[in-house]
Structure prediction request, 548 residues.
Amino acid sequence: MANKKLAEYLFDRIQDAGVDCTFGIPGDFVLPVYAAQQKTNLKTVVMTHEPSVGYAADAYARLRGLGIALVTYGAGGLNMINPIGLAYAEESPVLVISGSPETRYRSQKPHLHHCVKTFDTQYNVFKEVTESQALLHNPVTAQAEIDRVFSTTIKESRPGYLEIPRDMVNYDIPVEEPAAPCSMESESPATEEAVNEIIERLKNASKPVLFAGAEVRRFKLQDKLVAFVQALNLPVVTSILGKASFPESHPNFIGNYFGQFGNPKVKEYVESSDCIISIGTVLTEMEAAGYTAKLPIENLIQATAREVVIGHHSYHGVDLKSVVETLIQKCTAKVKPTMRFEIPSIEEEALVISPDAKQLSVAAMIEDLNGLLNNHYSVVSDVGGCLYAGLSLRTDIFIAPGYYSSMGFGVPAGIGAYLADPDRRPIILVGDGGFQMTGMEISTAVKLGINPIIIVFNNASYAMLKFIDKQRDYYDLARWDYAGLAKAVGGDGIQATTRDEFKKALEIARDSNGLFLIDAVISSEDISPTLKRLTDHFGAKVRAALAS
Prediction:
């Protein structure tokens, strides 16, 4: 057994997990942690506001398997609650590391700055939005606590929280090498039983479909899922949160399934299937399209990171990776010769492009973006109209808060996505409302030398809410000079009001070397068919509440 400084051991674990940068904002209680990080090979990415820290770390985690957020106590840490709530809801493994007051102060000085109610207030709040937590106040247990939170964060693909008193950062702690490995795998006798039942269902199916969700990417199962699909020639759809979890260029991909909100032809095919194999899709309200999805339990197989449910049978303690791997083995060895299914031909739902060249339309923007996209780009979307229009983009990386739906995600998440995968230039879709929340992170992107293409859906309103309710003055937004803002921080930008202007702007953006923003001026009445169906559904609920 050897001794290491607590921070040294912590950063060793972070680097061993394949992380090469952290996101944060320094403050007095966390400065010793920042100083310790400077002795490592980790890059320190300083954002302008803590919510942006969380969104950037979240996007990084979705691509790399772990993201790190480094914040100070109280005013900094509590600013992180919303983005970490998002990470928990959407199963993103973000580890929050917060500095805190010295251990001796916890009994002596209860009214230190940044303290709310008690010294434990922040810790207790984070317990509600993280899977595991630890206060590193005891050098004897520090390694075990760090290892526990690390392992749980990665295995469960949900946020963790470590709080480090200032006087513990450089404290010598006893360390046993090597540290416990991080893995989601667990052996369970139920795995083979669950897989055998799935195969029996497939043997009796005439029209199966695979429904892929976000957990496929979270647990890095894309290649394994492709192998399973190809073994049986299964048609594949993805959920809204799971978009791009299966390659959209693959011949077996037939579209996104979003209940009555999505493509009607995809809806009809999925809901008429006699065997729906849901892999990594947690059927939240949004994944189930406001609970309009008609997925009969007798035809539904649900395999998630926590259980497998087949009809009325439940198998607990079964991990998703083992299920997929066992399916591949059994299908390849025994089933493939006797089971090959037909892939339907389903056209993408057409976005109607107005012949009026005087007004830029959402449909025209999506069509032109599809002409640009290839494997040199990733797509990161905020919520609202840009997200639901973005579902029509053909891409193999699509990052968006499709379930939790927190505005302000887009721009900082684009920074996190780039740092996780620098070979991909981010295309960031963001409404003007979301941009006005966190859009000044464009200055962070410029400072870091990151070159996203940012498209602001500028309709001077929270347009989605107008369709859910009706036009009200509190849905109106100020019209900013978004292109001017990009230029002011060292990037470049152009305003586009017609399709020709947008096409030209996209060409210039494509050839640019730095951050480029397109201020796309559109009508507040211009929404995608998906968003129209969604707002009709939720609008009925709101109007009923207003009338009661």
Q: What stands out?
A: The CA atoms of residues 71 and 270 lie 45 Å apart.
